Amino acid sequence: MTTTSDATLEPRPADEWWRSAVIYQIYPRSFADGNGDGTGDLAGVRSRLGYLRDLGVDAIWYTPWYASPLADGGYDVRDYRTIDPAFGSLADAEALIAEARELGIRTIVDVVPNHISSEHEWFRAALAAGPGSPERERFWFQDGKGPDGDQMPTGWVSSFQGDTWTRTTNPDGTPGQWYLHLFTPEQPDVNWNHPDVRQEHEDVLRFWFDRGAAGIRIDSAALIIKDPALPEVPATPGPGEHPHLDRDEIHDVYRGWRRVADDYAEPRVLVGEVWLADHERFAQYLRSDEMHTAFNFDFMARPWDAKELRESIRTTLEAHAPVGAPATWVLSNHDVTRPVTRYGREDSSFDFAAKRFGTPSDLDLGTCRARAAALLTGALPGALYVYQGDELGLPEADVPRELIQDPMHFRSEGVDPGRDGCRVPLPWTRTGSSLGFGPDGGAAPWLPQPADWAERSVQAQDGDPESMLSLYRTALHLRRELTALHDEELTWLDLGGDDVLAFARGAGFACVVNLGTTPVPLPAGADVLLASGPVDGAVGPDIAVWLGLPS
Ligand code: GLC
Which InterPro entries would you find in this protein's record (predicted)? Predict the structure, then answer.
């Protein structure tokens, strides 16, 4: 049950818009297919900008749209200054950025500093130039260990499981040096001690900022610096002791990037993908001369449990306060299990290592909780990220094994289903060969859409006040209207015990989320502004409400 809002959306003021922005994540391959080849593209996005304006988003973050062999869905960049032809052209990207901005929507592009594609001209040149060449110094080429050099330089484990070194072959066919890749062999790590690497990335930032990008999302941001001695990973590394994670020298890189971003009349924004368990080390990336914000994966990975979520919210806000940076709230992205599926599972936490085929989920329960989670995250102080399709309540799709493309699946030797289940092309209409993803009769979507997604399409949900889409639209409009949700700090309220998350934002607004099993009576005089489900004087299990409080 939702209440509606007829507020007209005003674009946010330029100043510090990112502190409480709603940022919608587009996975371009799967958003909308303009030319009917089965792959999403920029023409598709341009045709759907009105949808995003009506949804009420402030900015769009695009996962990589650059020329790429797609060994890792575009996170293997061949050329940062070219749009992959499957998505369109640079002119299309420029037009898209400008058209979105006219609708009050800013653009954030993805920058992947840890690695490039093995087809990037730098890596091809390094292979061709051979051992000891300056071209190889831009990467981590090493001789192997052992008398024949056939042992890897380190035993580091890949973020995608498996080895992190691949041996090259010399032009005469003999085995050659090894190169480092924390992800797939098609993604060689670059050497951030090399001045070319630093210069090139600052130039890439300027390239996109000059074209109107309002910010960048920084991929694998804590991994880029390596200990040049290449030691093994200690059993329990202390702060800054890990050879390839969160090294102290990393901050110098982001300070340089901040200077580039601050050079613009409307300063550009740096958003980090920083996966770190240590909250204090995490916050160091958000000091006033480094990144503006970073994704809050701690919150995202927690189970649907009041104690866990309360602890995450508390520690998040405490960690951000000293550096003056806003928190971010993220329920999912293109790497993790969709919330509707995750919250319907017995174990509703998220862990890459635990993903398995066929894990049961109660999707009705998951949907109910995902609705409540949308209102919870929408009411917390900071920026909010919405991954495409979560506003439609899409569940994780079961992609048939023979169609899976994600390298995480293959590198797990088929045990991990990988990430394609959250990357299935969006359903826009009830009918049509691709449910409106592309033109009717066009090529089949690059991943198949489940048959029952017709009823989850935008068309099916549009105008239905009970739908997930209506809930998101109303919440995002209200969030923009209610200044308390931008300006006021969070104050915890004691309502209904440990299983209830209740907090105020200023004197006039409260959010109550019931994660327990007994209904929680509404506070006296409270006015229900928005609810994730039916509310009749009390907030039932797995329901969240936004309340106006009497003054
Ligand atoms: C990030 C991206 C992920 C990608 C990886 C390697 O975690 O979100 O999709 O596979 O980096 O670039």
Answer: GH, GH13_cat_dom, O16G_dom_2
Count of domains for the chain: 2
- Domain containing 159 — which CATH number? 3.90.400.10
Q: Is 326 in the same domain as 457?
A: yes
- Ligand 1 centroid to residue 284 C-alpha, Å: 22
* Residues within 6 Å of ligand 1 by CB: 72, 75, 112, 183, 219-220, 273, 334-335
102 shares a domain with 133: no
Expressed as residue numbers, the domain containing 159 is 121-180
Cβ–Cβ under 8 Å, residues 411 and 162: yes
Do both 278 and 427 map to the same domain?
A: yes
Q: What is the pLDDT of residues 98-155, one digit of tens each?
A: 999 999 999 999 999 999 999 999 999 999 999 999 999 999 999 999 999 999 999 9
CATH number of the domain residue 217 falls in: 3.20.20.80
Asked if 149 and 294 sit in the same domain, the reply is no
Distance 219 CA to ligand 1 centre (A): 6
5: confidence class by pLDDT, cuts 50, 70, 90:
very low
- Ligand 1 centroid vs 358 CA: distance in angstroms? 24
> How far separated are the first and last CA of the chain, in Å rounded?
25
Report the residue count for the chain: 551
Say what the pTM is.
0.96
Q: Which residues, including other chains, have CB under 8 Å from residue 219's CB and lie 6 or more apart?
A: 64, 75, 110, 111, 112, 113, 114, 273
Dist. CA 14–CA 83, nearest whole Å: 27
480 inside domain: no
Nearest-CA residue for ligand 1 atom 3 is 335
Closest Cα to atom 4 of ligand 1: 75
Neighbours of 169 (CB within 10 A): 11
The answer to whether residue 532 sits within a structural domain is no
